Amino acid sequence: MPRPLWTGAISFGLVTIPIKVVSATENHSISFHQYHQEDMGRIRTRKVCELDGKVLSPDEIGKGYEVAKDRTVPVTDEELDRMPLPTAKAIEIVAFVEADSIDPVRISDSYYLAVDGQVAAKPYALLRKALERSDKVAVAKFAWHNRERLGLLRVRDDAIVLHSMRWPDEIRSPESLAPRETELDEDEIDRAVQLTDSMALDDISGFRDRYREALEELLAAKSEGKALPAVAGEEEEESGKVMDLMAALNASVKAAKETRGEDATVHEMTPRKPRTRKKAAPKKTASAASKKTTAARKQPAKKTAAKKRTAS
How far is C-alpha 144 from the chain's CA centre? Predict the structure, then answer.
C-alpha cells in the first residue's frame, strides 16, 4: 500500500470510521532538471533570506501572513492544528446527492480511503453498501493543507474514493468564452451525431500516453549515442483556411468507420440550400392610388363626349 497522506476518520451521522488516505493516481510524467548549457552544471533553487542573504534549510522556514506593509504575523503548525474546526481530523459527510448533479469541472484530485484497523471494517462496508444501493454520492467537508475543503465520496470496485472538490466561487464563468449564436443546418447536426456514434467506445482502458513513449525513445537514443527516432511526416493545414464543415464531417465519419473495420461507405450529405423568398411587390403609395382613382373617374366622361361628336 502507498504511504498514507493523511489519517483521520469518516463521520457518518453518529458512525465513525477510522481511515487512511492514500493517493488513487500515479504520475508517470518524465521530469527534467535545469542545467547550465555551457558546462552542464546542475541549477538548483535555493531559499534565501532577503535580509541577511543566508541560505535556509526547511527547518528554519516558518509560515506567516502579511497583514500590512512591513508587518507579518507568524503562524505555527501547532496553532493551525489547534483551530476549533470539526473537520480538522475527520471527513464529515454533510449530504447525499445524485452523481449527475455534480459538475465535473469542480472535481480535483482523487484518493482511496483505506480502513485503519479491524474496528473500521464493518462501518466502512456499511457506508459502501449504503452508497451502492442508494445510487448516490456523499458530499463531505474536511480540512487539509491548512484549509477546509469540499469532497465527494463514491464507490469504485470495493473501495471508497474521495474526490477533492472546488468550492462554487472557485469556478470561473464560461459566459464570456461561449461562441455567438450560429446557424446550423439539420444535416450538419445529423452527421455530427453519426460521427459520435461511429466513435463510441465501451472501454477507454486501451489508450496510452504516446508522448511519454516517444520521449522515452528519444532519451534512450541520446543516452546510447544512437540516431534520434525519425519524425513521421504530417501534412500541415493552412492557417486561416475556411473549413467546409460538411466535407470534414463526411470524411471524419468515413475515417472512423475504417478504423473500426466497419463498412466505410458514407452517403454524402450536403447542407440544404436556404430557401429564397420572393420579394414582395412594392406597396403603392397613397398618392399614386389616388391618382389612379381620379384617372378612372375621368375616363367615362371622355368617352361620352366622343359619342356626342359622332352623333352630330
Answer: 25
Rounded distance between C-alpha atoms, residue 220 and residue 225, angstroms: 8
pLDDT tens digit sequence for 19-39: 999 999 888 888 899 999 999
pLDDT at 157 over 60: yes
Residues 6 or more apart whose CB falls under 8 angstroms from that of 262 comprise 198
How many degrees, rounded to 5, is the angle at CA 114 between CA 81 and CA 100? 95
Q: Which residues pair with 112 in a beta bridge?
A: 22, 161
Q: Output the pLDDT for position 144.
A: 81
Given a cut of 70, is residue 295 above it in pLDDT? Answer: no
Amino acid at 235: E
Q: Is 298 helix (H, G, I), strand (E, B) or coil?
A: helix
Q: Biggest alpha carbon distance in the chain?
A: 135
Contact 48, 31 (CB under 8 A): no
Q: Higher-confidence residue: 20 or 87?
A: 20
List the grid coordinates of 278. Answer: 420572393
Type of residue at 113: L
CA distance 37 to 40: 5
Whether the full predicted model's pTM is greater than 0.70, yes or no, is: no
Hey, is 42 helix, strand or coil? Answer: strand
Residue 229: pLDDT band (50, 70, 90) is confident
Q: Is 259 helix (H, G, I), strand (E, B) or coil?
A: helix
What values do phi and psi take at 128, rounded to 5? -65, -45
Report in angstroms the alpha-carbon separations of 105 from 3, 58, 96, 142, 164.
Answer: 28, 35, 19, 19, 11
